[in-house]
Amino acid sequence: MPATIVGMNDFDFFIGSWNVVNRRLTNLLDGDEWDTFPATTTCQSIFNGGGNTEEIIFPTLGSRGFTLRLFDVERKEWSIYWSNSHTGLLFPPVVGTFADGRGDFYGDDTHDGKPIKAHFIWYDITPTSARWEQEFSADGGQTWESNWIMEFTRA
């Protein structure tokens, strides 16, 4: 796969090891109290930049997460899949692209058995830092609630 496909290497900035400060709502779609906790993560490239894998360790929570990102060469967009050690399930992907230094990825999911929309945002990307945010919508995308923010600093 040639590395000249526009967008294919958008996540190259994330390859390597990172320290993470997490802020997450304690009650999704129903609260305003936030927990703060640390993590470390390592991201590795696959398919010559056309994908990557990431394992994140949450030491104070006693859990881990796993992300698989794949670039669709024909559609020129990313699909991002998430799983965690609590469930072992692969959640439905969010799909999107980067423009002007910001990545926006949308998908359909469920929360407490009800359909929701999910949005992942990557921004404030530098060689040594990045920010990721997750927000959910329970009303078909009319309103959004930010529920998880990760601040990454290169280890």
**Largest sheet composition:** 10 strands, antiparallel, barrel
Q: Which range does the strand content fall in?
A: over 45%
Helix proportion range? under 10%
Topology order in helix (H) and strand (E) letters: EEEEEEEEEE
Count of distinct strands: 10
Compute the number of helices: 0
Q: In terms of structural class, how would the helical and strand content be classed?
A: mainly beta
Write a short abstract of this structure.
By secondary structure, the protein is an all-beta fold. It has strands spanning 16-25, 34-46, 51-58, 63-72, 77-84, 94-99, 102-111, 114-123, 129-137, 145-154.
Structure description:
A hairpin with a 4-residue loop joins strand 3 and strand 4 (63-72). It is built from no helices and ten strands. The protein has 155 residues and is mostly beta strands. It has a ten-stranded antiparallel β-barrel with strand order 1-2-3-4-5-6-7-8-9-10. Helix content is 0%, strand content 61%. The protein is globular. The protein has strands spanning 16-25, 34-46, 51-58, 63-72, 77-84, 94-99, 102-111, 114-123, 129-137, 145-154.
SSE map:
Elements: E1 16-25, E2 34-46, E3 51-58, E4 63-72, E5 77-84, E6 94-99, E7 102-111, E8 114-123, E9 129-137, E10 145-154
Antiparallel strand pairs: 1-2, 1-10, 2-3, 3-4, 4-5, 5-6, 6-7, 7-8, 8-9, 9-10
List keywords for this structure.
about 60% strand, ten-stranded antiparallel barrel, 10 strands, about 160 residues, mainly beta
